[in-house]
Amino acid sequence: MKYLFGPVNSRRLGISLGIDLMPHKTCSMDCIYCECGCTDRLTTELREYTPVERVLEELDAFLSSAPRLDVITFSGSGEPTLHSGIGDVIRHLKERYPQYRIAVLTNGSLLWRPEVRRAIVGADLVIPSLDAVSQEAFGAINRPAAGITPSAVVRGLGEFRREYSGRLILEIFIVPGINDTDRELSLLREACLAVGPDLVQLNTLDRPGTEGWVAGVDRGTLKRISRRLAPLEVEITGTPEGRGAAAPDTDGMILATLRRRPSTLDDLASAMGLSREETERRVLQLKAAGMLEVERGGRGVFFRLRERGREM
Ligand code: SF4
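# iron/sulfur cluster complex -> structure
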């Protein structure tokens, strides 16, 4: 599969089939924590980056067997709302496969554009990021394309909230020393209250990011930050629940997952619904075949695909 990946056991979404509409790595931001690596094409241009027709063919072929899924998720190698056909793909899924929920993971940077809001308004769940509100912190963490400002992002989020009746979860990625100061947290709290999401999720680095100096924070710090954001409902992103989907092509799924995000053996075992031993056996075989490379991160040894570098 070229545009689909998984299903994987996402820690936030359950059993999730991923749709990757963007070529690696095309994004409107170049976040320092991105697990897909550096942004090669930093852009705000809306275009049909991959052919919608091919994506729909892959979806129809995969979904014709009525697989057990909790959600179909737009994410992957860049910012999915840059793709001018995302609305067409969502409409197709809603018309033909109404039994599946649809989620969009977005950096939220383009929601000030009405056509982008219209394109994703049919999703059941939208998870935009909002890591910082001051120009300095926003620039330092997200390194956006020219023309994207934090005030435009917050305005776009507010407008989207007013037009969208689905579930909206704002994700804040905490980078110690940049957006965990009193001032930044106050600004974030104010902005989140103005937007009015259903939930705020706090996240931090738990696998190698783009910049090696970026560190994560411990759970105690995340708990303190969550209290600081009251009365917003805040969740600290947890660990996988261990559910898994039976995989017809497990090695292919492991490779598709590692092409988009570096993972430990435990991450993979949980995502694939396999035992750790079975996961290790398969991963070592793929590594022996020269398909994987290894990197040490905060949670241990991470595997990633060798041929294409990092993607989401
Ligand atoms: S984290 Fe998301 S928004 Fe940031 S550079 Fe990576 S793909 Fe783009």
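# post-check
The first strand starts at residue 4 and ends at 10.
The chain has one domain: 4-247.
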